[in-house]
Amino acid sequence: MLESHSQIIKGREVVADDWSVLRLEPEDPSGADSPDVVIVPEGKIIVPLAVWLAQHDALAARTAVGVWIGADESADVIKGELDRFAVVAIDFPKFTDGRGYSIAYNLRKRLRYAGELRAIGDVLRDQLFSMHRVGFDAYATRPDRDIHDALKGLTVFSETYQASVDQDLPLYRRAVRDVRVENTDVGYGI
Asked: Which InterPro entries does the UniProt record give (predicted)?
C-alpha cells in the first residue's frame, strides 16, 4: 500500500511532498506483502527496512529510493549505506511511542547521517519541537491534522536547557553570566 502526503513540513516551512511511503499489510496470509516479493513502484519511494534488506540489489540500482525504520528496528544494519539515501524516515506507530527519538539521535550523532531525516506515522504538533532537537528536519504529520497549525510546534520554546543534536552545549555552558558577587558573608568562599 502506498501512502502519500501532498504536503510535509521540511525545515521550518510547509512544502509539497514528492515522495511516497510503501507500507506492508500486517500478516497478509497470501504472502503478497512479503518483503522479498512485494513490487516496489517506480518514482521517489521510501521503502520499509525489511524490503530494502530483502531486495537490496534491485533497489540499490535505483536513484530515488529512501528507507523507513520501524520503532522496533535498528539503523545499524544499514550504517555503511546511509550515504546512498536522500531520505531516511522513522515511523512512529503511536504518538506515545518514543523509540523513534532514540533512533533519530543515533542516526545523527553516532552514525553521522546528514541527509533528510523524516518523521512519519502518528506525528502530532506537540512532538515536533522534541523531534527537531534529536535531528529530524522533515515531518509528515497525521493527515487528519492541520499541517500549518503543526508547524507552530517547532517554535513553542525559545530556549532549551539540555544539550542535544540541535545544541551541543547545555544552557549553563552557553549563558554569559555576570559573576561579580558582593557578599559579606563570613563563610563565603570557604
From this structure: UCP030820
pTM across the whole model: 0.84
Domain boundaries, the chain: 2-174
Q: What is the pLDDT of residues 109-151, one digit of tens each?
A: 999 999 999 999 999 999 999 999 999 999 999 999 999 999 9
Long-range contacts of 141-145 (CB under 8 A, 24+ apart): 141/5, 141/8, 141/9, 143/5
> Is residue 25 within 8 Å of 3, Cβ to Cβ?
no
- Could you tell me if 170 and 163 are in contact, meaning their C-beta atoms sit under 8 angstroms apart? yes
DSSP 170: -
How would CATH label the architecture of 2-174?
Answer: Alpha-Beta Barrel (3.20)
* pLDDT per residue as tens digits for the range 64-84: 999 999 999 999 999 999 999
Nearest by Cα to 92 from 56, 59, 126, 41 = 126
